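Q: Predict the assembly, please.
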Amino acid sequence: MKKTDNKAIKKTGLGAKASRRIDNTVVYIVLILISLIWLFPLFGLILESFKVEYQGQTGYLWPQQFGFDNYIRLFKETDFFKWFINTGIMGVCTAVLQTIFVLSMSYVLSRLRFKGRKGLMNAMLVLGMFPGFLTMILIYKVFSDLGLVLEMAPVGLIIVYCASSGMGYYVSKGFFDTIPKSLDEAARVDGATRFQVFYKVIMPLAKPIVIYTILMGFMAPWGDFMLASYLIHQNSAGMNVAVGMFEWLSKTMVNSHYTMFCAAGVVVAIPVTTVFLCLQKYYVEGVTGGAVKG
Amino acid sequence: MATVKLTNVKKVYGKDTVAVQDFNLDIADKEFIVFVGPSGCGKSTTLRMIAGLEDISAGTVEIDGVVVNDLQPRDRDIAMVFQNYALYPHLTVFENMAFSLRLKKVPQDVVYEKVTQAAEILGITEYLMRKPRALSGGQRQRVAIGRAMVRDSKVFLMDEPLSNLDAKLRNQMRAEIILLRQKIDTTFIYVTHDQTEAMTLGDRIVIMKDGFVQQVGTPTEVFDMPDNLFVAEFIGAPKMNTFKTQLVYEDGKYYVTPYGAKIEVTGAKAEMLKARGITSREIVLGIRPEHFVLSSEGDSAAIPCKITVNEMMGSELHLHGVEENGDKLIVRIPTISLTDEQRSSLTFGSYIYVTCEGKVMHFFDPETEKNLLT
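A: Predicted assembly structure:
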């Protein structure tokens, strides 16, 4: 008993300050180490992309000569720009369509009560547990019959990305569930249709989740490789960045394209990073403050 | 402005959870009706069925002679104030109030006029540009009322609008609703669990329990002549004292005999008993706390009891006592009628003798709990 008392007294005095400082120092050192490990590949990529003296892999990190040669070659000598645009179109289309599908689905599941609602939700949960690539061969077969492969692959890919997106309703449904139902009811009494309730009342309140859904919708096609490589095959006109750049790492090309690959990596990262930085403030919660009793 | 008629309205949740049973009510134009009852009695459900927010399992709801069972809330021309205000947090007070008008595509100048007019009546003009989160509870409730006011709708529904406010604000807002009612002059349906609100606001009160309507009547009617024991105990605060006792008919006179006392029934009550041909029988006797008067030890009409709690309310004294058998009773005495000596003697543990006048007693059947005189 006495021991704990002494300890307590110590902690409230100068000793507490010192021990807190030591704790913090340890925590910061660990965090800094983790960030260094995490940031190292990124720095490596950026440094490699500015390396001018040799275009293949070298045994060192710091370039002997800095320059933008890799970036210039990227746009002048390859189809990278075309791929970039392809990926961009796929990303934007998917983001828009997927957001509409996911949010409508989530709103319906959160607000409407209909027969089979629970069963539907459970079925989607179970279906979602199967890895997507199980369907890859079948998708290829169907899409090749429909002519949605090779140079038409981007259209096919958009369809695949959006088709099952409604099944990813969990996060946004969870968010909608937190918005009081009496807001819907008030709006309906005020003369709004269900759809007006959705876009005039719920959407503005669900900004964080809308942004989240858009970002997720954009990210998936932006970085997709596996499914895209199947549908695109080796048709340069239909390639996205991941599939296009992958060729540069083949045995025959890696020695002349490695630094360019790194430059392309940096270019690919720029839009996503920018979008994230711009939109992150909308993640801030608390927009429903003042809605109901408080 | 409209009449509302509910005929055999029933609400069943799932397979067999009955929330409202056989609800019949005719509400006149410009009437202020209050649904009151303990929680779970079905009052809010009934209101929500009128609003169109709940499906009606059976029966019909008519507004102005039109059956609205299958109409969407927006087609019923009603306005509603919710218990938790339900203000749109992303809109300013002005836009919150203008929301319904904007949906109807009302011209901007009309919107402006209506909103500012309502804001002025409610005293919230200076907050029009604020968001709801920057308002206090009372101000939010005013905005919610304002939002309903600008609609000029046929029926004004209020679902426990004051229950989130503190006691002082609630009293103030209650008075304001009475004033507001004179200004708006439309049909009101108001839901509350607070009998004081019901008594002070309503032209007529609908008292509900377990989905059933117990009594419909003016505040005076339900207070003076409760249909059954539940209504008797629910209306009035502190609640009515009830004792199982004997009604004695002797030489053309009626007496009640609670705890050895013998009190004569007088006035209209005695005549009503006689008119109904009631003779000696077992009854549940009801006496409101304020109808007790202090008596003295020798009085044959006095019930002796021991004080267990003494609540000094300022203008009146609430005495909780136990009678010899352990039954509890509450006595409410205006402090102005007490001498200083009496006041100091009415303390914990002391004995008092109370009686009551014969004309203010209530008689209920112990089996059916119905009032014997209605």
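Chain B has a mean pLDDT of 92. The longest helix of chain B spans residues 167-184.
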